[in-house]
Amino acid sequence: MERVIQTLRRVVPKKIFRAVSPLYHFFMAFWAALFYGFPSRRLIVVGVTGTKGKTTVVRLLHHILATSGTTTASLSSLGIRIGDKEEENPMKMTMPGRMAIQRFLHDARRAGAEYAIIEVTSEGIRQFRHRFIKFQGAIITGVHPEHIESHGNFEAYLRAKLDLFWRLPKDATAVINKDDGAWGRFAASTGAAKVFYSASEVAAGGKPILVRHVTLSRDGIEFDLGQETIFSPLLGEFNLSNILAAISFATARHISLRSAASAIKTFSGVPGRMEFIQTSPVSVVVDYAHTPESLRSVYEFLKNSRIKTKDVKLICVLGAAGGGRDRWKRPEFGRIASQFCDTIILTNEDPYDEDPTVIMGEIRSGVAESVGAEMILDRREAIRRALNSASAGDTVIITGKGSEKWIMSKNGEKIPWNEREIVREEAGRVFKK
To answer: Which terminus of the chain is more exposed, N or C, with fewer CB under 10 A?
Structure first.
């Protein structure tokens, strides 16, 4: 069906296609739900949306609920989990098509799941993939500029996220990040019961989930919440926010804080998200960061948590997606890298039909002249170069791919890629010398 749509997109005038495509998306959403018997009506479905942190929150919440003894299913960019069974997401698509989502919900119900947690994207909402799903919960991690070319402007992108909350019934639970500038819009958009969370020590109004005595290190995160001292092996303030999002929903649904804290302690993280491949003699980290905010958060944490000596370097390997996606981000990536990185190596990421050297050049246009950046088209070679340039105590951070399985190239070609394994291979060669 998607091939048919792509063919129609090429032959039908744009104005006509744009006019009729919402009808198609709406009909397909209804048909998929009807075909599988509206399975969401017999589940507690939770939608997790936001510019970043969705996958981690989905996995965290799944772990908390499952550890408490609740049969849980989840659908994310990493894969499908139903109870104890898991399979990879074969598509480079965070929120799959309507038939795939309804099939997942159908399978979850048949497996006896009580909860189904779904990553919900703005593009998925724009194409009505969330329609005819009875959501009983929604979590917003935060909203920053992303997919602007697709939506037209930031306001349209924000409204897509708001639509998930607007459709919540009154007996649902809305979990809202009060550290995000748009929190008030989300609070006003829904009549559902609202729970707010904040990674800072002060947040006014509503029913806030607040933390105290936060300690961030390369060993993990420790903080006080209520009467509990909670430790997580996850890293960085951004993951503190993700943890609070998951706790907020779980405790609102009558999971005890002590039970949630116990589960968080045993959650080892999401592959390719702030993942230390090795820590000695050089720390090597892989992260999915692909927005300015996430890139800044990753760099800032690594810079601030490293050994404080003037000779220790932060070596950064990065690229940017092609396909006309958020071109404005490219020079911004360069500016952010200039602020935190001692060495910058630009490389290929997901060029789609764009010239990857042009993409790298646009990133380099934002790099400060005093810092400079080396451009290496071959991603494996760029990783090797970064590792070879590192000395004991340095940190090498490779961003953009995380645990993704392909590099997306021209004409729809998907080049197999496993960043974590490639980094292990290259690190093994370099540091055994």
So the answer is: C
DSSP state of 305: H
Q: Please write the tens of the pLDDT for every residue from 274-314.
A: 999 998 899 999 999 989 999 999 999 999 887 555 679 99
CATH topology of domain 2-265: UDP-N-acetylmuramoyl-L-alanine:D-glutamate ligase (3.40.1190)
Show Cβ contacts of residue 396 under 8 Å, excluding neighbours closer than 6 positions. Answer: 282, 283, 284, 285, 315, 316, 317, 386, 387, 390
Residues of the chain with CATH 3.90.190.20: 275-430
**What is the DSSP track for 61-78?**
HHHHHHHTT--EEEE-SS
Burial string for 9-40 (b: 16+ CB within 10 Å, else e) reads eeeeeeeeeeeebeeebeebbeebbeebebbb
Please state the rounded mean pLDDT for residues 414-433.
92
Candidates 154, 157, 106, 150; CA nearest to 132 is: 106
The predicted model scores a pTM of 0.89
Q: Which of 375, 372, 337 is nearest to 355 (CA)?
A: 375
